[in-house]
Amino acid sequence: MMWLRSLLLLLLLLRWWALGKPSPDAGPHGQARVHQGAPLSDAPHDDAHGNFQYDHEAFLGRDVAKEFDQLSPEESQARLGRIVDRMDLAGDKDGWVSLAELRSWIAHTQQRHIRDSVSAAWHTYDTDRDGRVGWEELRNATYGHYEPGEEFHDVENAETYRKMLARDERRFRVADQDGDSMATREELTAFLHPEEFPHMRDIVVAVSEVAEHLLPKPVLADLYSEVPGEEEPAWVQTERQQFRDFRDLNKDGKLDGSEVGYWVLPPSQDQPLVEANHLLHESDTDKLHEKFDRLKKLHQEEKKKLEDKKKSLDDEVNAFKQRKTAAELLQSQGSQAGGSQTLKRDKEKKK
């Protein structure tokens, strides 16, 4: 009963909070700048230490996961039950949630996040509302308006922002496949989420500098731009470790083209399928089955409450109809009696 295990684990996910990667650094005058596209979650995938936030966001989506964090356990369980029903209805409708259906749901959640982020960006960047996003519109909305040659003359760390601008323009030119400097919604999606588009593979550029203590910098240019005097976030330190252990395959302290490509688009990696298998594997415990029994009982109780409420409303409606009929009957009888008395008085007057 794989769907039970996946459902049960998710009940535990609703009770965990975790700190994910903070919002990327913003341009000096505009909206948050563009970074490499989103994985299933930015939270660490660290079930061994009780951190299920990655699974939580991968299954529900980031925005919905935040909503669940604000719900009571009863409310979150009820909503989760409805989601599981939707997963099966979108598949073979056999009353069970299979691995394929769970994988399809996670993929749907991932794509929904991408669509939502692109829609929000479109509203921000399409300033003239002509149905396209030009490079000038995107640049000005992100970095502010500057005359040619005067970019960032009024801000600190101007050189850092110039590099950020150059990287963003390079990415935009690759995403703009027809070369008209105007992005369609599809092209803007490629700009914001290059990991979803094979033709964007080469746009990620490795940083080959060496940090303090001769440790390699694992932070790629499109993920984080160092600001002098500011402490590195924790997620950047995690990236350093990831770089050393998994990304720098030949251990030369930098990423070459093949290593970058392997990192951006790993061969044959199906993230939703990996996560679906992970959820089913991790949820196989007796304790979680006990939680399902309680959840099932809760749903039955809620269903009975709704049925009782409906019956009560039906009874009230029927009682009202009966009272209305009786009142109309009395009114009719009263009218008839009044008419008879009037006719009798008229006859007596004539005599």
UniProtKB/TrEMBL annotation:
<keyword id="KW-0325">Glycoprotein</keyword>
<keyword id="KW-0479">Metal-binding</keyword>
<dbReference type="InterPro" id="IPR018247">
    <property type="entry name" value="EF_Hand_1_Ca_BS"/>
</dbReference>
<dbReference type="GO" id="GO:0005788">
    <property type="term" value="C:endoplasmic reticulum lumen"/>
</dbReference>
<dbReference type="GO" id="GO:0005509">
    <property type="term" value="F:calcium ion binding"/>
</dbReference>
<keyword id="KW-0732">Signal</keyword>
<keyword id="KW-0106">Calcium</keyword>
<feature type="region of interest" description="Disordered">
    <location>
        <begin position="328"/>
        <end position="351"/>
    </location>
</feature>
<feature type="compositionally biased region" description="Low complexity">
    <location>
        <begin position="331"/>
        <end position="341"/>
    </location>
</feature>
<keyword id="KW-0256">Endoplasmic reticulum</keyword>
<comment type="subunit">
    <text>Interacts with PCSK6 (immature form including the propeptide); probably involved in the maturation and the secretion of PCSK6.</text>
</comment>
<feature type="coiled-coil region">
    <location>
        <begin position="289"/>
        <end position="323"/>
    </location>
</feature>
<keyword id="KW-0175">Coiled coil</keyword>
<keyword id="KW-0143">Chaperone</keyword>
<comment type="function">
    <text>Probable molecular chaperone assisting protein biosynthesis and transport in the endoplasmic reticulum. Required for the proper biosynthesis and transport of pulmonary surfactant-associated protein A/SP-A, pulmonary surfactant-associated protein D/SP-D and the lipid transporter ABCA3. By regulating both the proper expression and the degradation through the endoplasmic reticulum-associated protein degradation pathway of these proteins plays a crucial role in pulmonary surfactant homeostasis. Has an anti-fibrotic activity by negatively regulating the secretion of type I and type III collagens.</text>
</comment>
<feature type="signal peptide">
    <location>
        <begin position="1"/>
        <end position="20"/>
    </location>
</feature>
<protein>
    <recommendedName>
        <fullName>Reticulocalbin-3</fullName>
    </recommendedName>
</protein>
<feature type="domain" description="EF-hand">
    <location>
        <begin position="113"/>
        <end position="148"/>
    </location>
</feature>
<feature type="region of interest" description="Disordered">
    <location>
        <begin position="25"/>
        <end position="47"/>
    </location>
</feature>
<dbReference type="Pfam" id="PF13202">
    <property type="entry name" value="EF-hand_5"/>
</dbReference>
<comment type="similarity">
    <text>Belongs to the CREC family.</text>
</comment>
<dbReference type="InterPro" id="IPR011992">
    <property type="entry name" value="EF-hand-dom_pair"/>
</dbReference>
<feature type="domain" description="EF-hand">
    <location>
        <begin position="163"/>
        <end position="198"/>
    </location>
</feature>
<dbReference type="InterPro" id="IPR002048">
    <property type="entry name" value="EF_hand_dom"/>
</dbReference>
<dbReference type="GO" id="GO:0015031">
    <property type="term" value="P:protein transport"/>
</dbReference>
<keyword id="KW-0677">Repeat</keyword>
